[in-house]
C-alpha cells in the first residue's frame, strides 16, 4: 500500500516537532485519552482500561507519534507496524467512523500541550494533514482485513457467540477454555500465533471489557482454545477483571462473544531452518500453537522449545510439551525455573535455575541458524532479543509478540 504524498512544508513542520514529541508525547496522549473518554464513553468498550490506567496505551501511542515525526520522509517504513496495529484494531471492532473522533481529540490535546509554541496553528494544520494520510491507510488496511476474515470459510465480522465445551486447569494460575461456535457452523481457520478477542461484561452497570488471547492449539482442530492466566489485581486498577471473571464465573456450557482470529505474529511455515520457540510464563500460548502445527505439517523440521517459568506449579502444558519431545526425535525441550522446588529439580528437562540467559540458550539451541519466536513479559523479551542480536541473528529471523500495547525492547 502506498501512502498519499505530504506537502514538503508539512513534512518540515512535522519533522521539527520530533524533539518536543519525544519530551511531551506521553502528556499529549494521556490528555487525549482523558478528553475523548469523557465525551465518548462508548469507546471504553474498545480500549483496555487497565493499559490506560497503567500508562501503557498512552506510552505506546506517544511512541507511534514520535516515530511518525522522525520517519516523516519515509512513512512507508511504518507500514509493518501499522499492519500490526491494524490487526488489533480489526480484532477490537474499530470502525472507520472512530477515526475522525480520534483525530479531533488528538489534535485538541496537542494544541493544549503545545499552546505556547509560536507556530502552534501551523503545527496543528501539519499534523491534521498527516493524521488524515495515516488514518486512511489504517481504514483501508482494516477494511481489507474485515473482508478477509468474513469471506473465509467459517469466517465472520464483528462478534460471534461461542460455547465453552471444556474448561481445563493447566497450572495454578492458567486455565484453558475450549470453544465451539454456538450456531454449530464451520470454524474459521487461523495462522499459528494468532489471537482472538473475548468480550465479557462482569458488571452490567459498566462498559463491556475486551481482551485478546492467543489461540493455544493448532488450526486443524474443530475448536478454538485459549489459555488464560489469572492476573492478580492491583489496588486502584482493573488488572485481572477479565481473567478473574473467566476463571471464576465461566464454566462449560456458558457462551462468550469472540471476534475472528487476527495477528501478525505467525509461524513462517515455508522456512527450512530449524524452529526455536522461547516462552516466558503464559507467553507459551502462541508458541504451543506453533509447536503443535509444525509437528503435524512438517514433522521432520527440528524444533527447540524453551520454557521459562517461576516454578513448576506455575508452568502450564509441561506434560504436553514433554510428551511431544519424548515421542519425536525432531523436538528438543528445555526448561528454566527461576525458583524451583525440590520436586522441580527432578524435572528431566530442567536445564537451568534462575532467569533465562545466554548460557541457557547456547546450551538449549543446537543450531543457531534458525527461525526464532519468543513471547513473554517485557523484561524477558528484552533479554532474549539482546542475546539473539549479540549472536548476529538477522532481524528477519527474530519474531516476538507483546501481550498488550507494543513497547520498545
Could you please describe the fold and organization of this structure?
The chain has 409 residues and is an alpha/beta fold. It folds into 3 domains: 8-151, Globins (Globin-like, Orthogonal Bundle), CATH 1.10.490.10; 160-258, Translation factors (Elongation Factor Tu (Ef-tu), domain 3, Beta Barrel); 275-401, Rossmann fold, CATH 3.40.50.80. Helix content is 40%, strand content 18%. The strands form 2 sheets. A 6-stranded antiparallel β-sheet has the order 4-3-6-1-2-5, covered by helices on one side. A 6-stranded parallel β-sheet has the order 10-9-8-7-11-12, sandwiched between helices. Helix 9 links the parallel strand 7 and strand 8 (303-309). The protein is globular.
From the N-terminal CA to the C-terminal CA, the straight-line distance is: 27 Å
Mean pLDDT: 92
| Proportion of residues in β-strands | 15-25%
* Strand adjacency order, main sheet: 4-3-6-1-2-5
Radius of gyration: 22 Å
Q: Unreliable runs, pLDDT <50, ≥5 residues?
A: none
DSSP, total strands: 12
| Oligomer classification | single chain
Net shape: globular
| CATH-assigned homologous superfamily of the largest domain | Globins
CATH topology term of the largest domain: Globin-like
The helix-and-strand class reads alpha/beta
* CATH architecture field of the largest domain: Orthogonal Bundle
Secondary-structure element string? HHHHHHHEEEEEHEEHEHEEHEHE
- Count of structural domains: 3
Domain FAD-binding FR-type: 157-268
Site (Involved in heme-bound ligand stabilization and O-O bond activation): 33
Active site: 99 (charge relay system), 142 (charge relay system)
Domain Globin: 5-143
Amino acid at each position: 500500500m502506498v501512502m498519499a504524498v505530504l506537502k514538503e512544508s508539512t513534512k518540515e513542520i512535522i519533522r521539527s516537532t520530533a524533539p518536543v514529541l519525544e519530551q511531551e508525547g506521553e502528556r499529549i496522549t494521556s490528555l487525549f485519552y482523558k478528553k475523548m473518554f469523557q465525551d465518548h464513553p462508548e469507546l471504553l468498550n474498545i480500549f483496555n482500561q487497565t493499559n490506560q490506567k497503567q500508562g501503557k496505551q498512552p506510552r505506546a501511542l506517544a511512541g507511534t507519534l514520535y516515530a511518525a515525526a522522525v520517519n516523516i520522509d519515509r512513512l512507508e517504513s511504518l507500514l509493518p507496524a501499522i499492519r500490526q496495529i491494524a490487526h488489533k484494531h480489526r480484532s477490537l471492532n474499530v470502525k472507520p467512523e472512530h477515526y475522525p473522533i480520534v483525530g479531533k481529540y488528538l489534535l485538541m490535546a496537542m494544541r493544549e500541550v503545545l499552546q505556547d509554541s509560536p507556530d502552534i496553528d501551523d503545527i496543528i494544520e501539519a499534523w491534521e494533514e498527516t493524521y488524515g494520510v495515516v488514518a486512511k491507510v489504517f481504514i483501508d488496511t482494516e477494511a481489507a482485513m474485515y473482508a478477509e476474515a468474513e469471506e473465509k470459510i467459517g469466517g465472520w465480522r464483528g462478534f460471534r457467540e461461542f460455547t465453552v465445551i471444556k474448561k481445563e486447569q493447566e497450572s495454578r494460575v492458567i486455565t484453558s477454555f475450549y470453544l465451539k461456535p454456538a450456531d454449530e457452523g464451520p470454524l474459521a481457520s487461523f495462522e499459528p500465533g494468532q489471537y482472538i478477542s473475548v468480550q465479557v461484561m462482569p458488571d452490567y452497570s459498566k462498559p463491556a471489557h475486551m481482551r485478546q488471547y492467543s489461540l493455544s492449539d493448532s488450526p486443524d482442530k474443530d475448536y478454538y482454545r485459549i489459555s488464560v492466566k489469572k492476573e492478580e489485581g492491583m489496588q486502584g486498577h482493573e488488572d485481572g477483571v477479565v481473567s478473574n471473571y473467566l476463571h471464576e464465573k465461566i464454566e462449560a456450557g456458558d457462551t462468550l462473544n469472540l471476534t475472528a482470529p487476527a495477528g501478525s505474529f505467525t509461524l513462517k511455515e515455508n522456512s527450512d531452518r530449524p524452529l526455536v520457540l522461547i516462552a516466558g510464563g503464559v507467553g507459551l500460548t502462541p508458541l504451543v500453537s506453533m509447536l503443535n502445527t509444525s509437528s503435524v505439517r512438517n514433522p521432520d523440521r527440528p524444533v527447540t522449545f524453551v520454557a521459562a517459568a517461576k516454578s513448576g506449579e506455575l508452568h502450564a502444558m509441561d506434560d504436553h510439551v514433554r510428551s511431544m519431545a519424548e515421542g519425536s526425535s525432531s523436538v528438543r525441550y528445555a526448561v528454566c525455573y527461576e525458583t524451583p522446588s525440590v520436586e522441580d529439580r527432578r524435572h528431566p528437562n530442567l536445564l537451568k535455575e534462575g532467569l533465562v540467559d545466554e548460557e541457557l540458550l547456547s546450551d538449549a539451541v543446537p543450531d543457531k541458524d534458525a527461525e526464532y519466536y519468543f513471547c513473554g513479559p517485557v523484561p524477558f523479551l528484552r533479554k532474549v532479543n539482546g542475546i539473539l542480536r549479540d549472536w548476529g541473528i538477522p532481524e528477519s529471523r527474530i519474531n516476538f509478540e507483546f501481550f498488550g500495547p507494543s513497547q520498545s525492547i
